[in-house]
Amino acid sequence: MKKTLYLMRHGETEFNKKKRIQGWTDSPLTQNGIDQAKKAKEWFEKNKIQFTHAYCSTSERASDTLELITTLSYKRLKGLKEMNFGKFDGESESLNPPLDQYDTFFSVYGNGETRAQVQQRMNETITNIMRHSDHESVLIVSHGGAIANFYRKWENESPIKKNEPFYNCCILKYIYEDGKFILENVVNENKPAR
Question: Out of the domains of life, which is the source (predicted)?
Fold first, then answer.
């Protein structure tokens, strides 16, 4: 049976605005982040999308975003949290390593997670959610890095490829069938003006 997953990044936070590394440390939504979530809600309504179930990470920025999208009751799960950046959490984004060192940098130098660890827990958590027989149309609000690692897991299965960052309140529409996630659409309604 085909099911639909809407995997969404939370709205802009104070740490996003201040260019701080934000993993397990939380930061409140900015007014812009609230407006982004409301714009995403409008997109769901315009496309007549109704959810049977909703989930988010245990971070308040995710639950606050979800609550602006739907009044449906929801569950918060640790497996949907952002990558743990260890001692780099809350520090300036200027401390981020080059992309070719990103896979293990935070576990080696910061006592955080590897990309592989994030990918595994995101995939296990989301797969367990989608296996429920009554979960036909699911909204999950998570985080940019966590979503990117989930995307990488299923990238080769999907005809649609990411061609820009997953901006705040970006929505990835996946079809889940036969244990596989196929990316059908990426909605970046809140892409910043350049």
Answer: Bacteria
